Amino acid sequence: MEGFQVELMARMSLGQAVLKLFEYVLDSAFLRETFDENRGRCYERELGFDRLVYLIRDALVIDHGSGRQSFERAEAEGGLAVTVQNAYGKLGRVPLEVSMALLSGGTVRLGELLPAAGGGATVPESLRAMKPTVIDGKKIKNAAKRLKALRGLPGKMLGGKLLVALSLETGLAIAMNADQDGERNDVPLVPGLVGQVRALGPAARLWIADRQFADLKMWELLTEDQDHFLIRCTRHLGFVPDPSRPAQEGTGREGRRYVQEWGYAGSQAHPQRRYLRRITLFRPGEDDVILATDLLDEPSYPATDLLAAYLQRWGIERMFQQVTEVLELRRLIGSTPKAMILQAALCFLLYNLIQVIKAYVAADGGKQPEQVSGELLFRDVRVELQTWARFGDPSLALKLLPPISQPDPLRHWLAERLRGAWTDRWLKAPANKRRPSKHAPVPQGQGGHSSVWRLLQAARQQAPRRP
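-> structure tokens emitted (467 positions)
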């Protein structure tokens, strides 16, 4: 029977690579250390944090987001020391700090395994000395109304708010800041996220963001530690052109006209008034793109490069879509915001893992990583891991994988194991140039979202106190 297990494992090139990455990134010692350093008043008993992470991982990868199937399978195999109900309870109490540290720490370990060519988008030459980092917020939607305080309420529920940082250089989600209130604004979460990213190591970064971050106080934070910003803004932001520096016109890479100006943003009395460069890209029939940046030197940082870098901001929107629709964040396992945020952290970590695999198979096929569909690649990964879960012996998995624990040998092994794995089925479909249709108006009294956290807080205040 063991010969069958060996042969089955040998036929799973993608499955082997993913299992080895899981072993390296989600090492039990790393998970226990992450929990111990960030747990606060939370504690472990029969069900350890490392075991809980493995159960949620299996639910996402094998069971299409069904936590119950993962818990019950583990219970039937004797791998769950508590009841299924207690496993859900443990999931719902994991501190936010643990979830955030799990993503940032796990991504650091994954980043060590990227091939030399990298796995991110092509950064313009003038900006490669910096680390372009995109930030954007995401609400966790479609929370289930299982909790007593939520039953029978109209509308949809928001399970938490995330602010995520995406590295354009590597294509990985490198950090997130989270709040249990799904209706929380993005801006208050920025200092915590920026602090997490800067803690990853000293480096000059270019922060790229959309209009909700066009704030003078925010720009002061983003230019600390020799960082820079490239942020879209609106015409409502006060701007006084510098008469000593005339505006310049040019044509972008798509043939559209742009104008760049230098001047002051903010009134003279504003304490954060700033001298900056404004680039306006005119788009007939669409909203103009107005970018503000503190990169004032036009010869060193051409406007076309800055426009191209901002265009890559859409990478974080595509990541959110894949994390939600492909990696099962739309099927929430827990009912509390803390549970949903832990699941989101694992979904982002799984997205990063697929990005690493994508970089290797793209190099094997002579393609660029952005030409490979992460959705189609993950579909084949899931098939192989489901096959191993059904016919393989989980206790033999670690024995059948090579005992490699250092980044350099592991990168070499991944390249060799995935050699010849490329198939054209993983190529992305041609881009669709259709304009997105407008959303239909929501009738009065229907639709809307409510924050799970706010409703639970209100229910606790209304509950009668015990004598």
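The chain has a mean pLDDT of 91.
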